From TrEMBL:
The keyword Membrane applies. The chain crosses the membrane at residues 18-37, 49-65, 85-103, 139-158, 165-183, 195-213, 225-243, 272-293, 309-326, 338-362. It holds the Pfam family OpgC_C. Signal peptide: none annotated. This is OpgC protein. InterPro entries: UCP028704_OpgC. The keyword Repeat does not apply. It comes from the Bacteria. Keywords: Membrane, Transmembrane, Transmembrane helix.
Amino acid sequence: MGSNIPDRDIRLDACRGIALWFVFINHIPGNICSWLTLSHYGFSDTTEVFMFVSGLTCTMAYGHVFRSAGSWATICHTVRRSWEIYSAFLLLTLFLVVAVHRMDADLADEVNVAIVLQQPGEALSRAAILQYRPVNTDVLPTFVLFHLVFAPWLLLLLRWPNATLAASALLYGLVQIYGWNFRGWPTNDWYFNPLAWQFLVTLGGWWVVVGRWRLMAFVTSRPMIVLSAAYLIWSLAVAMSWISPALELAVPQFLKGLIYPINKPDLDPLRLLHFLALAICITNLVPVHWAALRSSALLGAVRCGENSLEIYCVGVLLSLAAYIVLRTVSDGALAQVIVSGTGIALLTVFATLLTGFTGLAAPRIRLL
């Protein structure tokens, strides 16, 4: 049990690092550089990449812990990581409140921290139980819950992988039908519904345990590649209709009724299918030992992927700082390119330093 779990694939860190760069860019409102990311070209975006890759990497790392040290060690690792993400979420919340209060109080409503300034005791207590979340921090509480239950989930996945995947898919389907979610505060549900997004994490874990052996031939088959590419092209056409009136008129009314709304909080099936099609195409286009992954151009992405929690939190703060700069200095296209490039460079330098410091310390699991 767990003996077939593979070693870490550098492509995973590269994908997660690039996803973190895209997240930073997309968190800057009105940023022209967002056209370099996935968000404008289909139904899914970097969130799906992040969730799936986290399922892969967590299963690999904690699977090795389980195999070498047993279930109690696995529980200790996952609970500790849950606590680290929880602590990072609370610290990031406080930093955002202080940053907005000191740098640009007019952004309080936009960053969703005005409620903290008005009701600090209530808001912070709600943050402590993960009900209140400032803008761009929503994914962290979801990962807190995922890591809390990861150890028993992993044991089920290693013993009964297909049954665990089926149960996960059933829960995902029920969420699509009944809209189950956790309540937020002061209004709205959780933006990244754990009851829905758990399916993508489970799918990543299932792929590590048994899926790659059973479905790799199917995933790399020509019909599957063609079908995936066709779906990506169709979703691109639909996505382009959102910004082009001429293309919008070309989308039949009955089709609009079938596909809209494409719900992100509950991981709409169209988003799920788009990500799977994208993953199939990337799997076939990017080999495991692709030399470019070791190049200086992508090494920065790998380093960011290795330190995902820290880079995500710093990226949220940098995106706020970049937005304030654009508001106060210039919001022209050149300024947007400069602040975006500077932010990515700072994230890369920070991640490289973190990797260097971590290499000098005792090795440990760093997963989001």
